[in-house]
Amino acid sequence: MQFLGLLQQNPPRYVCEIGAASGGTLFLLARVAHPNALLITVDVNLPWERSMIHARFATGKQEIVSVSGDSRATGTMGRVRAALRGKHLDLLFIDGDHAYDGVKADFQNYSPLVRAGGLAAFHDIVPDFNSRYGTPTVHYTGGVPAFWQEVKTQYKTSELIEDPEQDGFGIGIVYP
User: What is the CATH number of the domain that holds 129?
Assistant: First the structure.
């Protein structure tokens, strides 16, 4: 909620979400985005039916473009760039492949599309209980927390974490 409140202060017009899953975050982003926003969501093996559902999340004159494919594939990146039609992102939200190499590639490949003054954000920056304590739970943060620690040394960042002892989650914001 804190992240959505931050976005509401300056509603993003060009948004790219890596990792659509069932679309919950996309739905919320559409609610706080500019009325004329372009929201692009990327997920591997995104079914056509899910893309149709995502399109209905748009409000006002918003446009939602669902891109099915591996976010690291050249063709997928090309479809995202084509959808942007030469514009730069106000917000890049990374919540896709949680493997260290996957999240790193998503940031390296898509952060150059973020405009000066825009935001890049990561979900799952807090280590899950399995990685911290060896206690398996339904939460999996993978390599995101490790990559986040590296990002924090290279960029201006902020964190939205309810409780540092929580089982995963948390949002890290980069000001590229």
Answer: 3.40.50.150
